[in-house]
Amino acid sequence: MKFRVVHLTRYEYAEPVSLCHSIAHLKPLQTRRQRCLASQLRVDPWPAVMREREDFFGNRVNYFSIQQAHSVLEVIATSEVDVNVLALPDADKTPTWERVVTRLYDRGDALMTNARMFTLPSPQVPLDAEAREFAAVSFTAGRPILEATLDLMGRIFREFEYDPLSTTVATPLAEVMQQRRGVCQDFAHVAIAGLRGLGLAARYVSGYLETLPPPGQIKLQGADASHAWFAVLIPELGWVDFDPTNNQTPNLQYITTAVGRDFQDVTPLRGIFYGGGTHDLRVAVDVNRLEQPAPSV
């Protein structure tokens, strides 16, 4: 399935900004389940400096610097992506989660040992006893890892309430655990904290989820949004994604932009600026399917 993604970010400042430096994680990754066919970033005003690099996690990161006075900053990322679905084995046919923890310390298994950094606490996902205890209910002794992770995902979906007004990007994990509500970022952090507490490698995934309008209604432009979920490293399968917000493993409607230890590693757009005072922020995302060529006869 091919998609075109347009992500617009617009800042309007109360007073002119004299200088800003920003980094963006807005260009999709090349992964086993997706190919980025094309991607471009348009910044207005035109930056004096603009560079792209690959970060430690393999993400595409754009840096830009605007060195002229401006009252409006607009960043538009436009990408075309081809997405496929990865077939998963029967959940009960995967290795036990304890065996996966052991494999992380097998020096002859480079994929697993290189992922050990994702077992450690990170700025927004500290080791949390309550999150570990929550995950442990799903990860009983000898349980296959895929079966246990699917169960954990389902329990977060059922026991945590989606409430976009209850948290911000800075809300501590402990507070989310206490109030049992939040958004996709929070639910991913809860799962990652619990999994890391058990010794497993878990990472944060940011991207987009195509939303479809109710039958008979037209899709509203700009109504899509950034999304977040988590992934667990499973031997022979690699990184497997799970979306606790919707209780499903990502399908054709999921597009990955970046991966990291937590939200801080993959923030869509962040930076520093001088001046400006207060500002208004507008974000609009469109994920649209591209016409597929008709099969040849």
Automatic annotation (TrEMBL):
Pfam families found in the cross-reference section: Bact_transglu_N, Transglut_core
Q: Which domain of life is it from?
A: Bacteria
User: Which SMART domains did the record assign?
Assistant: TGc (SM00460)
Instruction: Outline the extent of the Transglutaminase-like domain.
Output: 176-246
The protein in question is named Transglutaminase
Report the source organism.
Chromatium okenii
